[in-house]
Design a protein that fits this description.
By secondary structure, the protein is of the alpha/beta class. The chain has 15 helices and 29 strands.
């Protein structure tokens, strides 16, 4: 009897041991939307009534934290939009970012929309120097019958076979200047994901990751549609997902933006059943710490910017209030309207890329606040069309009953009173009054407008169908140059946010 019990114990133990052998550990380290924030930058945080300021981010910090957590069980993924956001990226047309990305020993990088800000040819040339897999399954290069990047890649870590599919923004064509993506066709993303899932399943991958630059909301949609995906590592919406989001059993993670966080997702994977048996995810703030900071990476960044640093550090004005997106954006549109002597100025909200604490304003600050280098355009439009443009934009931005949003147009020269409880009325009766330069708008009058080339080229995206074709005139002045000149002329800036849309919504 004792012998039988011993045999049974050995059988059970060996079965348990075998089961344990199938459970493998994996850590996914990820970040996204770095936007060339290669140098640590200052942030402030209020706690217990006190304001503390400290430095975060930068290439040296990001690499330092990455190396702190990385081991032979780590998969390193970048969620896209490393380009655009600092002078060195613009001046080198993104090549600075490829050089720095090579330091991370990435497993895969998904091409975001801002990678195309210098054109698809410049991007492809730069990425040819990459030492990592560049993914973009849903972007097809016209007339070449090939995707812009690899559709998928397969990696093996700690005995786990991992398939990674990469999808770039579905709405790429509306996210950048048309000329920059003229040779790119965006394929049906659902079809692309389905086809590549089939391939990875046939390759007997234990884990399938979707590397997506489509935003947290869209990633939830993907999760609800494609149940063979295990993890979605996202970007684009700049969403800090502090604890992994679970949609239909699929984990969704994203690490905010600008290198503030490194995401760490610890998994235990059953390689026999190809399932995740446990997980823990967290965002780690990349607080500047000399014990963690990668000095070699920091030195490389410093060497890169040394040639432009004297010009970028030139003080051209003084800011006496903190600039947040609201008052900073209003200063930008006010400055352009004044400089180009138009009735109205319109800019996409996404053109403002950085907050700024009060203090000296340098050339580099303006480059970082408005890094895109779009040309200034002017056009005229009837009052009736201008009203319709604003009505359409307010409707789009008023989702969830909030008069805010990433694509809310910044404007100057107008004051609008609305009642958002009437938004569903197609007659635009929710606009109770609209003034241009202090006077009621006249429907048949022609009004002059200044904007940037991106907003002008994407008029339908921001203003919908407003019944008039605009014919923009290219001033051949770069918006950033105009704003640099405006700071120099004004010298001291202390503008506060004005409520230019007043909502009389009935309670």
């Amino acid at each position: 009897m004792k012998k039988l019990i011993t045999v049974i114990f050995l059988i059970l133990f060996s079965g348990y041991a075998l089961a344990q052998e199938n459970i493998k550990e994996l850590t996914i380290l990820h970040w996204n939307d770095f936007h060339a924030r290669n140098v640590p930058y200052q942030v402030s945080k209020k706690k217990d009534g006190q304001t503390a300021t400290y430095f975060i981010g930068g290439t040296g910090s990001m690499l330092g934290y990455l190396n702190k957590f990385r081991d032979d069980k780590s998969l390193v993924l970048h969620g896209g939009d490393d380009y655009q956001g600092s002078p060195i990226s613009s001046i080198t047309k993104g090549n600075s970012q490829v050089e720095l990305l090579k330091l991370y020993n990435l497993d895969a990088f998904i091409v975001g929309n801002h990678e195309f800000d210098y054109g698809s040819t410049e991007l492809e040339t730069g990425l040819q120097q990459a030492n990592f897999d560049v993914l973009s399954a849903n972007l097809l290069i016209q007339n070449e019958n090939r995707t812009f990047g690899k559709s998928y890649t397969i990696k093996e870590k700690n005995g786990i076979k991992i398939g990674i599919i990469g999808v770039s923004p579905e709405d790429l064509k509306s996210l950048t200047l048309p000329k920059n993506v003229a040779n790119i066709t965006v394929l049906n993303t659902d079809s692309v994901i389905a086809a590549n899932l089939k391939v990875l399943k046939s390759e007997k991958c234990n884990l399938i990751v979707l590397l997506s630059h489509n935003g947290a909301d869209m990633d939830s949609v993907y999760a609800s549609k494609f149940h063979d995906i295990d993890v979605i590592v996202g970007g684009h919406s700049h969403t800090p997902i502090y604890k992994p989001r679970v949609v239909d059993g699929i984990l969704i993670v994203q690490a905010g933006s600008y290198g503030k966080f490194l995401g760490k997702l610890d998994l235990k994977v059953d390689t026999e059943k190809d399932t995740i048996v446990s997980y823990f995810g967290k965002l780690h703030e990349t607080v500047l710490d000399s014990a963690i900071f990668d000095k070699a990476a920091g030195d490389k960044v410093n060497d890169m910017i040394a040639s432009i640093e004297p010009k970028m550090k030139e003080v051209i004005g003084k800011l006496e209030v903190d600039w947040k997106k609201g008052n900073c954006g209003q200063w930008n549109v006010d400055a352009l309207r004044t400089m180009f002597k138009t009735d109205v100025a319109l800019l996409n909200g996404g053109s403002i890329r950085k907050d700024m604490l009060k203090g000296n304003i340098t050339v580099g600050d303006i480059w970082e606040i408005n890094p895109f280098g779009n040309n200034i355009m002017t056009f005229t439009v009837k009052g009736s069309s201008l009203k319709k443009m604003l009505a359409n934009n307010i409707r789009m931005a008023a989702k969830d009953e909030e008069l805010s949003g990433y694509d809310m147009i910044l404007f100057s020269g107008m004051k609008i009173v609305v009642n958002t409880s009437l938004l569903s009325d197609p007659s635009d009766s929710f606009i109770k009054s609209l003034e241009v330069n202090g006077k009621a708008i006249e429907m048949d009058k022609e009004y002059s407008v200044v904007t940037n080339s991106y907003t002008a080229s994407q008029a339908k995206k921001y203003f919908g169908d407003f019944g008039e074709e605009i014919k923009p005139y290219d001033t051949n002045v770069i918006d950033r140059d105009a704003l640099l000149e405006a700071v120099k002329q004004q010298k001291v800036i202390n503008n506060v946010f004005e409520k230019r849309i007043i909502d009389e919504k009935s309670n």
